[in-house]
Amino acid sequence: MAQKALGQVSPTTTTTALRATNNQTTPSANYPCQAIQFQALTANTGSIYICDRETPTLTSHVHHEIPPPSTGPPETKPTWSVGNPAGTNPLTANDYWILPEVANEGVRVTVLIT
What is the pairing mode between strands 91-92 and 2-9? Predict the structure, then answer.
């Protein structure tokens, strides 16, 4: 297994999400993985929504809400991870969309590839 950082994803709008694979050469191309993790950025002041589409409604299309970090004590940087051990790379990272509550805030995205 290998871990790969897909980088920071910070949409400039609170209505249109960016793919978790936004920093890849072809963001919409399939990006198979075993697991994916989203970590709140230190400077976030609002929640980040991990969604299933580009223009979600927050009542129907949110997989998870990642709260902003706390400065402590103790300091926290909240994360959300999803994985599927069945099969080889059964998830597709480009199926996950990032939508901030505050524009220009976001997450770090990391995938695990078998």
Answer: unpaired
Sequence-ordered list of residues with C-beta below 8 angstroms from that of 105, at least 6 positions apart, any chain: 10, 41, 43, 44, 45, 46, 48, 68
The 8-class DSSP code of residue 76 comes to B
Taking the complete model, does pTM exceed 0.90, yes or no?
A: yes
Mean pLDDT of the chain: 95
Residues sharing a CB contact under 8 Å with residue 103, sequence separation 6 or more, in sequence order: 11, 12, 13, 14
Give tens-digit pLDDT for 85-102.
Answer: 888 999 999 999 999 999
For the record, the structure tokens of 94 come out as 């480009």
**Six-digit token pair at 82?**
């999803």
Structure tokens at 6: 């897909």
Helix (H), strand (E) at residue 65: strand 62-66
Strands of 35-40's sheet, edge to edge?
2-9, 107-113, 35-40, 79-83
Over residues 22-37, the pLDDT tens digits come to 999 999 999 999 999 9
